[in-house]
Write a structure and sequence with these properties.
The chain is of the alpha+beta class. It has two helices and eleven strands.
Protein backbone atom coordinates (compact mmCIF):
# COMPACT_ATOMS: atom_id res chain seq x y z
CA UNK A 1 0.00 0.00 0.00
CA UNK A 2 1.20 3.48 -0.82
CA UNK A 3 0.04 6.97 -0.04
CA UNK A 4 1.20 9.15 -2.93
CA UNK A 5 2.13 12.80 -2.82
CA UNK A 6 0.41 14.25 -5.87
CA UNK A 7 2.15 17.07 -7.72
CA UNK A 8 0.66 20.51 -7.88
CA UNK A 9 -1.16 21.11 -11.14
CA UNK A 10 -3.29 24.02 -12.38
CA UNK A 11 -6.44 22.03 -13.17
CA UNK A 12 -9.00 23.95 -15.22
CA UNK A 13 -12.61 23.71 -14.00
CA UNK A 14 -15.79 25.19 -15.43
CA UNK A 15 -19.57 25.11 -15.25
CA UNK A 16 -21.29 24.06 -18.46
CA UNK A 17 -25.06 23.71 -18.61
CA UNK A 18 -25.23 23.50 -14.83
CA UNK A 19 -22.61 20.74 -14.67
CA UNK A 20 -19.07 20.99 -13.38
CA UNK A 21 -16.33 19.93 -15.76
CA UNK A 22 -12.57 19.49 -15.63
CA UNK A 23 -10.25 19.79 -18.61
CA UNK A 24 -8.37 16.57 -19.25
CA UNK A 25 -4.97 17.66 -20.56
CA UNK A 26 -4.19 14.18 -21.86
CA UNK A 27 -7.42 13.73 -23.84
CA UNK A 28 -7.53 17.47 -24.68
CA UNK A 29 -11.23 17.80 -23.82
CA UNK A 30 -13.63 18.77 -21.05
CA UNK A 31 -15.08 15.87 -19.03
CA UNK A 32 -17.58 15.61 -16.18
CA UNK A 33 -15.99 16.58 -12.87
CA UNK A 34 -16.88 13.60 -10.68
CA UNK A 35 -15.09 12.34 -7.56
CA UNK A 36 -13.62 9.46 -9.61
CA UNK A 37 -12.48 11.86 -12.34
CA UNK A 38 -10.70 13.97 -9.72
CA UNK A 39 -8.76 10.88 -8.62
CA UNK A 40 -8.02 9.93 -12.25
CA UNK A 41 -6.73 13.42 -13.10
CA UNK A 42 -4.47 13.57 -10.04
CA UNK A 43 -3.14 10.07 -10.65
CA UNK A 44 -2.45 10.97 -14.30
CA UNK A 45 -0.43 13.99 -13.19
CA UNK A 46 1.49 11.74 -10.80
CA UNK A 47 2.31 9.37 -13.69
CA UNK A 48 3.34 12.24 -15.96
CA UNK A 49 5.17 14.56 -13.56
CA UNK A 50 6.59 12.31 -10.85
CA UNK A 51 7.09 9.03 -12.72
CA UNK A 52 7.85 10.58 -16.13
CA UNK A 53 5.56 8.23 -18.01
CA UNK A 54 5.08 9.60 -21.57
CA UNK A 55 1.64 11.12 -22.21
CA UNK A 56 1.69 9.79 -25.78
CA UNK A 57 1.62 6.21 -24.44
CA UNK A 58 -1.30 6.67 -22.04
CA UNK A 59 -4.89 5.78 -22.93
CA UNK A 60 -7.81 6.93 -20.77
CA UNK A 61 -11.28 5.46 -20.48
CA UNK A 62 -11.33 3.26 -23.56
CA UNK A 63 -14.01 0.66 -24.09
CA UNK A 64 -13.19 -3.03 -23.81
CA UNK A 65 -15.36 -6.13 -24.21
CA UNK A 66 -15.72 -8.65 -21.39
CA UNK A 67 -17.78 -11.37 -23.05
CA UNK A 68 -21.01 -9.61 -23.98
CA UNK A 69 -20.38 -6.70 -21.60
CA UNK A 70 -18.85 -3.37 -22.60
CA UNK A 71 -16.64 -1.83 -19.90
CA UNK A 72 -14.15 1.01 -19.73
CA UNK A 73 -10.72 0.88 -18.16
CA UNK A 74 -9.56 4.04 -16.39
CA UNK A 75 -5.90 4.32 -17.43
CA UNK A 76 -3.74 2.11 -19.62
CA UNK A 77 -0.03 2.77 -20.12
CA UNK A 78 1.78 1.23 -23.08
CA UNK A 79 5.47 0.33 -23.21
CA UNK A 80 7.89 1.60 -25.85
CA UNK A 81 6.78 -1.19 -28.19
CA UNK A 82 3.15 -0.04 -27.85
CA UNK A 83 2.17 -3.13 -25.88
CA UNK A 84 -0.13 -2.74 -22.85
CA UNK A 85 2.14 -2.44 -19.81
CA UNK A 86 0.26 -1.00 -16.80
CA UNK A 87 -3.47 -0.71 -16.04
CA UNK A 88 -4.95 1.57 -13.38
CA UNK A 89 -8.42 1.32 -11.84
CA UNK A 90 -9.50 4.55 -10.14
CA UNK A 91 -12.23 4.87 -7.53
CA UNK A 92 -13.50 7.95 -5.76
CA UNK A 93 -11.89 8.73 -2.40
CA UNK A 94 -14.79 7.41 -0.33
CA UNK A 95 -14.71 3.98 -2.02
CA UNK A 96 -12.59 1.47 -0.07
CA UNK A 97 -10.12 -0.59 -2.07
CA UNK A 98 -11.51 -4.07 -1.51
CA UNK A 99 -10.87 -7.40 -3.18
CA UNK A 100 -13.85 -6.59 -5.40
CA UNK A 101 -11.97 -3.59 -6.83
CA UNK A 102 -8.91 -5.76 -7.43
CA UNK A 103 -11.09 -8.39 -9.13
CA UNK A 104 -12.50 -5.68 -11.39
CA UNK A 105 -9.07 -4.75 -12.74
CA UNK A 106 -8.15 -8.44 -12.97
CA UNK A 107 -11.23 -9.03 -15.17
CA UNK A 108 -10.10 -6.18 -17.42
CA UNK A 109 -6.67 -7.80 -17.47
CA UNK A 110 -8.17 -10.89 -19.12
CA UNK A 111 -9.01 -8.78 -22.17
CA UNK A 112 -5.88 -6.60 -22.00
CA UNK A 113 -3.04 -8.51 -20.32
CA UNK A 114 -0.48 -6.28 -18.61
CA UNK A 115 2.36 -7.10 -16.24
CA UNK A 116 1.48 -4.24 -13.83
CA UNK A 117 -1.83 -3.39 -12.17
CA UNK A 118 -2.82 -0.48 -9.90
CA UNK A 119 -5.91 0.23 -7.86
CA UNK A 120 -6.30 3.64 -6.28
CA UNK A 121 -8.86 5.81 -4.57
CA UNK A 122 -6.55 8.82 -4.55
CA UNK A 123 -5.76 8.41 -0.87
CA UNK A 124 -4.42 4.87 -0.99
CA UNK A 125 -2.89 2.99 -3.91
CA UNK A 126 -1.93 -0.65 -4.35
CA UNK A 127 0.60 -1.74 -6.97
CA UNK A 128 0.85 -5.29 -8.30
CA UNK A 129 3.03 -7.22 -10.70
CA UNK A 130 1.99 -10.43 -12.40
CA UNK A 131 4.89 -12.88 -12.22
CA UNK A 132 4.71 -16.55 -13.21
CA UNK A 133 0.91 -16.49 -13.03
CA UNK A 134 0.92 -14.98 -9.52
CA UNK A 135 0.06 -11.50 -8.34
CA UNK A 136 2.74 -9.88 -6.18
CA UNK A 137 2.23 -6.62 -4.31
CA UNK A 138 4.86 -3.95 -4.97
CA UNK A 139 6.02 -1.14 -2.71
CA UNK A 140 6.00 1.41 -5.54
CA UNK A 141 5.12 1.89 -9.17
CA UNK A 142 7.63 0.50 -11.65
CA UNK A 143 9.97 2.98 -13.28
CA UNK A 144 9.18 3.78 -16.89
CA UNK A 145 10.60 1.04 -19.14
Amino acid sequence: MASLQYPSFPFRLRENGGRRQIFDETRKRWVAFTPEEWVRQNFLQYLLQEMNYPATLIAIEKEIKLGELSKRFDILVYDNNHKPWLMVECKSMEIPLTEEVLHQVLRYNITIPVPYLVITNGTISYFFEKRSGKLEMLEQLPAWC
